[in-house]
């Protein structure tokens, strides 16, 4: 998504949260307003996932300690480690040092991003984002991306499911899916 947004020259797009402790550390060492050349992300994904190489401006820094405010997990004290908002062209990336699904707006606000004010907000989350972000969205587009968890259960190589188990809501049963 990041590569495509940058290639298209998208303006007002924010991607979050991308866990990359090395990038966050480099941003903190460089300081706010500095430029850093990074290989961002792609360190823990499945085969074929590669880092995005670019020279980013360090737009904002944060220590990653905050209280969540949303419906899913509001009121929790969390520590995402050093955070940074890195910008390349009109695209920004919210980088954390510890993993968290995008289920709360507080980490964005922590680094100066008002989620509702963004033209495009890309969230790394399977479904937990809906309660917090769907109400502020004009439109939600779900994208299947490579990762450690497949969002479509039909993609798993099941072999021992009992006949009749459906691989997705209203989808074919396991036995029918294996014959096609």
Folded structure, characterized:
- The structure is a single chain.
- With 180 residues, the chain is of the alpha/beta class.
- The protein has five helices and eight strands; from the N terminus they run H-E-H-E-E-E-E-E-E-H-E-H-H.
- The protein is 18% helix and 26% strand.
- The chain has a six-stranded mixed sheet with strand order 2-3-6-7-1-8.
- Strand 6 (83-88) and strand 7 (91-96) form a beta hairpin.
- The protein is globular.
Fold blueprint:
Layout: H1 2-8, E1 13-19, H2 21-30, E2 35-40, E3 52-62, E4 65-67, E5 77-79, E6 83-88, E7 91-96, H3 106-110, E8 120-123, H4 130-133, H5 174-179
Parallel strand pairs: 1-7, 1-8
Antiparallel strand pairs: 2-3, 3-6, 4-5, 6-7
Condensed summary:
The chain is of the alpha/beta class and 180 residues long. It contains five helices and eight strands, in the order αβαββββββαβαα. The chain has two domains: 2-149, no CATH class; 153-180, no CATH class.
Please estimate the helix content: 10-25%
Note the total helix count: 5
Order of helices and strands: HEHEEEEEEHEHH
Tell me about the biggest sheet? 6 strands, mixed
């Amino acid at each position: 998504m990041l590569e495509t947004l940058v290639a298209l020259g998208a303006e007002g797009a924010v991607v979050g949260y991308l866990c990359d402790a090395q990038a966050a550390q480099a941003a903190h060492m460089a300081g706010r307003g500095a430029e850093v050349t990074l290989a961002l992300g792609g360190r823990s994904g499945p085969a074929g996932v590669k880092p995005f190489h670019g020279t980013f401006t360090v737009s904002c820094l944060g220590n990653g300690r905050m209280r969540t405010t949303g419906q899913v997990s509001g009121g929790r004290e969390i520590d995402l480690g050093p955070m940074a908002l890195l910008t390349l062209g009109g695209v920004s990336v919210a980088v954390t040092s510890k993993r968290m699904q995008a289920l709360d707006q507080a980490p964005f606000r922590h680094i100066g991003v008002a989620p509702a004010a963004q033209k495009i907000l890309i969230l790394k989350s399977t479904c937990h984002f809906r309660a917090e972000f769907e109400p502020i969205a004009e439109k939600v587009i779900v994208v299947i991306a490579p990762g450690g968890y497949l969002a479509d259960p039909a993609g798993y190589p099941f072999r021992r499911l009992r006949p009749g188990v459906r691989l997705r809501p209203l989808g074919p049963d396991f036995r029918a899916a294996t014959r096609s």
